[in-house]
Design a protein that fits this description.
Blueprint lengths: L11 E4 L14 H16 L4 E6 L4 E13 L5 H9 L9 E12 L8 H14 L9 E7 L3 H6 L3 E2 L9 E7 H6 L1
Parallel strand pairs: 4-5
Antiparallel strand pairs: 1-2, 2-3, 3-4, 5-7, 6-7
Bound molecules: coenzyme A (COA).
């Protein structure tokens, strides 16, 4: 079989630790490559983010990093916040909600378009919806690169504000309770 498919690749999700041997990785974005190879363990040791690897026997297929975050109201974007609030019971509505941030997410160029990005989003939801909660976490957030906006939109992420419409990255969010209710 010449065409690579997600189903016939033996890929495991591993939590990076101090002793993890990071296999080669290239997503064609220097910052994202550098973070994985040179900084992900420093971030782990400093408790700034935890990185997870999708690893085959020979190489890193993809990776993502998670950190605690807050989804914070933009006072000038009331309509968006009202939409977010509609899913929260009235007495519990706030100007900020607990969230987990996808700080970095990258798929190796040779594996792009095969569903690994989508698989990672599903894995993050699974981690925060089905596993026992260690702390309250309602939303997933991401500062999405411009080229990846359609990817996140397809995965049900929404824009928090229009203020960043022309920026290099845009804040997007996903309500974890949607997965439970849908
Ligand atoms: C963006 C990225 C994470 C997507 O991962 P991927 O494994 O290639 O995406 P998937 O194969 O899971 O695609 C899932 C869906 O998103 C769509 N999609 C993926 N990348 C897209 C893009 N750049 N533009 C438009 N749609 C895109 C796919 O067509 C697919 O749609 P479908 O569900 O209708 O079939 C990956 O291409 C990547 O790592 N790019 C370089 C680094 C980067 O930009 N990271 C994002 C940092 S915020």
């Amino acid at each position: 079989m010449t065409e690579k498919s997600l189903l016939n690749l033996d890929v495991k999700i591993l939590r990076l630790n101090e002793n993890t041997i990071i296999q080669s990785f290239d997503c064609e974005d220097k910052d994202l490559n550098d973070f994985l190879l040179n900084d992900s363990k420093n971030y782990l040791n400093s408790r700034l983010s935890v990185t997870y690897l999708l690893q085959s026997k020979e190489e890193t297929v993809a990776y993502f990093s998670l950190s605690n975050d807050s989804l914070i109201k933009d006072d000038e974007e009331t309509a968006t916040w009202n939409k977010i609030n509609r899913a929260i019971p009235n007495p519990k509505r706030r100007k900020a909600y607990p969230a987990v941030k996808i700080g970095r997410l990258a798929v190796a160029k040779k594996y792009a378009g095969m569903g690994f990005g989508k698989l990672i989003i599903m894995a993050v939801r699974e981690m925060y919806v089905n596993e026992q909660q260690r702390s309250g976490c309602r939303f997933v957030t991401v500062d999405a690169y411009r080229n990846a906006l359609p990817f996140y939109e397809k995965n049900d992420f929404r824009f928090l504000t229009t203020k960043d419409a022309n920026d290099d990255t845009r804040i997007m969010y996903f309500d974890l309770m949607l997965t439970v209710n849908d």
